[in-house]
């Protein structure tokens, strides 16, 4: 439905806010040297454009993205054609005020009372009575005001929804855009129009007929019935020439003809409106007459008229918006007349200071589009001079450059481009003045970067041609400015697309000038440069430059090292010398090893450039492996480190060389040196790494040789020492130690410490959160070391690890196996304690320091006992967790067995009641209703007075017992437990009654207690004419009693069952109304009498339906407030749709949910598969939960919902 701003206060408010509502023109074609298209053509009325202002926000945004406004021009100023205003009559042009919801609601209530009074009074007046016409008109005014109020409410609701939608979109969420709904306000608007028609038809002499005619014309036009609107306006002018509405009628007719390209009648009506003398009418009429001149090509007269409007509107504050629009439209006239100087002078004199820039910017853009480049340059130059630090200054300067390009003035273009770079590049005075405006800086960045890039490229090319040192240095300086400004920002948005390439060119110029240190640094910067993550940057950047830069950096640092060592002299080019940029840079020299004693030498620090040379070699080898220069680069870095006594690092590097180049002569020389250095310095990790590489390299360590055997021993020894001494003891890194111990056990499974290391690795991995590694270690332990004394620790830890990866079946099984293993170990320990100690025997001779058999046995026995004692503290948790995990695995029977075992074994623990409740809940989840009922009942009996259980928990146990009996259809037990719940409520302490779950349980019990009354009430039918009066009285008596009972349920405070009770009240009234309408007809009545009889029945049923709707709407309102989506919510919606078709859309059935405040427990799951507490109503009854509407098949994707819904509750 399209939105129409049809009410005076709201419409004028939109005018004041937007500075003109709607556009009565298509976009004017902006082409140089061509006459503009007529500004009167329109695809829709101005009123509709006004109404769409808010509704079409996404579309408007997309259009703005397609073509941004010119620099300095606000989006709201980009409008072609004249603006529109609302009628001048007070009824349509009252000023908006700040909404006061409470006061407006109170006024609306009073208005509703007045409407009802008029509706009762008017039928009593005789047709043709003038007083009746007046009453009808007053009623129409009330309808009008009611429609305006509802429209304001609807728009407020829509705008709030739109704000939420915008916020969601800003967060990246995919949500459906809100839609406007004006059905209620349109209904009252239709009523108003109907009364207007009746007054005009039945009361031709009504004194206010002129106002009625204007109102009808105005509304007809808003609704798109334009011919009817024109007819009403013409009738008003013809029959009431002196009416105060005639000037507005002329305006409306003028707008109509103007928008349909009928300029002659449009102009005639505007002139008549102008001649009325009404200030607002006069100003707007002259404004529209100026646009008539524009469309006929009479720009000078049109310009003068707009000048008149500006001057005239300045005298009246209420015409401020029209003055703003006239100033904005003057730009179009000045462009057509090519009068930039006059425009500048006029706007500076007449326009508000804050709008002068916008108006001049729009004028300048129009001059460019019209091909008036000189005039545009003059205007843009004025803008820059007036605000040199303004946000739009760079774009104005760019527009000046482009205007000169349009004039083909190339020298001036270059001059203006340099001016742009000097003024607006990063770090300058303008940049600092605008540093808090990101978008502004982005625009300036793009403009200045392009200009500087073009300039530095030209200088570099010139330097290559002349080969002069001076020219190269000039290009170098400009490159540095470019790099600093456009290639060094931490924010990638302010790094130019061409920054990577130009940074490399900068380094090349530094090399050509033999500035080795600066060149090396820039080459490094190129290698490390991160190309911005955007397609334009990736397409421009040449990645081949990165490899060249990496190698060139090595060459530059090599020269610097040689200068440090005095091997070459420092370069110093003089002015006038020639530079050969294409000269070959050379290669890396090969190095030789000189053996040194590692023990007697202290490590020396590398010099500045030695360090950087090593780093540069490493970077190249890492980025570009397998290059022809790799072995030379590796040796260069290794030799530098070795010469400075960095033996560990040097040995590692030699090892890498040996591994990759085993057949190289230098590899054989380095192998012995590497092993010796690392072992003597106890660098275990490096030794282990390299020795493994040696061992795997069959070309270096041939199988069966002494070298291969020794290396294998070094691998095992260094591995263990590294994990134990370095990772665990020195670094104190248990996570890493666990990982390495696992690797150690895998590689050396026969080690006497393998089982201990594996257990240790599992525990450490668990503590470090490395679940997968812990599981692998534990499962491997049980498989490979089943008789280890660490078995109990392994089983208990494994159970916890299985839980963390949701392997609940394995976790439960492992927990129970742990308990069983513990019991077996405890029994074995007791049996060992009862055995007599063996007699002392002579000890066999053993090697010194070795452990004899008896000592070993005692040590192992003590260790096993300590481990069993430790495991004893875990048994209770393991037994309980087994029940929880069996539940998680979908094995409720095993869960109950585990819980019962816990209750039996640890009956004195505080948490026993909670475990017993969990066992009962497991039966409930399995839908073993008999067992569940017994379990919950036994819980209440056993723990009802137990201090370890709360009164709320006992109450909920009874409630679950009730639900189980409901499933079993055991009416007697259900009634018993239901009664106990109701009686027990008042005995609960206050804090328990505040518990949401307890409150819902009580509400459900109270609700179920009303079921007999509901069945009794719905059983009363008006099936016989002879007993209809008696049945009517009986049903009326029952509904009063029934409503009282359901209101008592509502008063419990339960959200779920309060909603159900309200829904039942609504269903009761609906049932009453339906029975009245379905009652049999009396015999002996003719057709007319029968119609009268049925009409009376409708009169009786209508108030009942209203009450039904009221109760159902209250139920839905409360459901939405609490976030409850239950069968009762759908029932209420369905019944409202029956009473008011279309009020709610057809809802796809899904699983239901309770209120958000409902408390949940890990041990209690959602109950499923419940049946209705009452028989399913017949198809002709009002629809209840669990029943599809008449004639409609049940949903295929959802089971039948329960009548008395059972939600998730706290145990």
TrEMBL record:
Compositional bias ranges of the Low complexity kind: 35-49
Location of the region described as Disordered in the Swiss-Prot/TrEMBL record: 23-88, 830-858, 1170-1211
Span of the signal peptide: 1-24
PROSITE patterns in the record: TPR
Keywords in alphabetical order: Coiled coil, Signal, TPR repeat
Start-end of each TPR repeat: 210-243
Domain of life: Bacteria
Pfam families tied to this protein: TPR_6 (PF13174)
Recorded coiled-coil stretches: 1025-1052
Protein name: TPR domain protein, putative component of TonB system
SUPFAM superfamilies: TPR-like (SSF48452)
Upper classification of the organism: Bacteria, Pseudomonadati, Myxococcota, Myxococcia, Myxococcales
